[in-house]
Structure formats: structure tokens, C-alpha cells
Amino acid sequence: MAIRTLDDLDAMDTAVGVRVDINSPLAEDESLADDARLRAHVDTLAELLDRGARVAVLDHRLA
């Protein structure tokens, strides 16, 4: 089975869910103390948006 990449996707007017693993430490005010993991996804999200996709970013945080 071949692994699909963004090059295989016709994203125009397509809803795309992107599951990201942020799990970054929080500051006292509950903002991200380190956004490195979030920034790691920027290129993928930007490419999907440039290709006309409607992007939903999905993450979870356990309280």
C-alpha cells in the first residue's frame, strides 16, 4: 500500500481535519509556554489553505 501525501490530495473546496499533537506546557495564565510543536504544523496547514481546503485543526488536552 502506497503512503499518500499532500501531493495526492485535490483539496479545493474539501473539508480537511488535521490532528496535531501540541501537548505543550502551559504558563500560569494557561497560554502556551512553548509554541514549537504548534509552529511545526504551520507549513502543512498553510499548504492545505493555499490549495483551497477548509481546514479544521484538532487537538486534545487532558485537564
UniProtKB/TrEMBL annotation:
Note whether tRNA-binding occurs among the keywords. Answer: no
Provide a Gene Ontology MF annotation, just one.
ATP binding
Q: Which UniProt keywords apply?
A: ATP-binding, Kinase, Nucleotide-binding, Transferase
> Enzyme group, top EC level?
transferase
> Which reaction is this enzyme known to catalyze?
(2R)-3-phosphoglycerate + ATP = (2R)-3-phospho-glyceroyl phosphate + ADP
Keyword Kinase (UniProt): yes
Q: What is its EC number?
A: 2.7.2.3
- Please list the GO biological process terms of this entry: glycolytic process
Supply the InterPro entries for this chain: Phosphoglycerate_kinase (IPR001576), Phosphoglycerate_kinase_N (IPR015824), Phosphoglycerate_kinase_sf (IPR036043)
Q: Pfam families annotated for this entry?
A: PGK
Q: Which family does it belong to?
A: Belongs to the phosphoglycerate kinase family.
- This protein is called Phosphoglycerate kinase
Q: What is the lineage of its organism?
A: Archaea, Methanobacteriati, Methanobacteriota, Stenosarchaea group, Halobacteria
